[in-house]
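Every protein is a chain of amino acids, and every chain bends into a shape of its own. Below is the pair of lines this work produces for a single protein:
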Amino acid sequence: MNFQVNTEWWKEIFDDIYLLTDGRSVCDTALTTAEVDFIESALSLDKSAPILDLCGGQGRHALELSRRGFSDVKVLDYSDYLIRLGKKKAREQNLNTIFVQGDARNTGLDSKSFDSVIVMGGSFGYFVNNEENEKILKESFRILKPEGTLLLDLPDKTYVQKNFQPVSSHRPGKTIQVTRNRDLQQDIIYCKETVTCSEKGHLRDNTYCIRLYSPEKICRMLKKIGFSNVSFQEDFMARQEKGDYGTMTNRMVVKCCKEG
């Protein structure tokens, strides 16, 4: 099955419908709490340390970090809709989380300004051209302080390939149906997502892609850029519930450092 995927699909897909289609992951409070428990443990940072939630969407991780007393948390994401939603939540909850709209490959943020950069929720690998994905890692390296830490949350490539499902369907509500047709070509999953509503009819079709990385490949990329002490947490937030969660079913987190 061949899909024509717009190379800039990520500029338009992350909106209110996305929060429905992926709500089982990106709107799951218990999952977010568990993920932030891990982030807090993995980083072991002082509460005043500057943290960047890169490709952070509506800031589900950043807002929870702020609730826990972290005082210098910033979110950068391309989606204007999600950034505006995050700002609204921060105001409503009286949190000082900062939200910035921008491109993760060229953030415009100051060099050496963060103690940690986190890229969570499978928000890496959106580009067919691997050099574009690599730019996000280079930018993370640039904006990290010496001895700063990068956490990179990725689909578990081996698990995805062994358990690949060409078609999946789920209902995020009584009236919404989400169907995904997938094609796995080497290291890239191409997907066509159709969203329909029993009351409103067809809502939209999306096509997108996710590049998969083995631990060996991502480790080589990170070391080439200059990161060191690369380690992996496999089976990160592995889903035990029934259902096809796609690349969010079983993940691994890569932790690495920028040497001082």
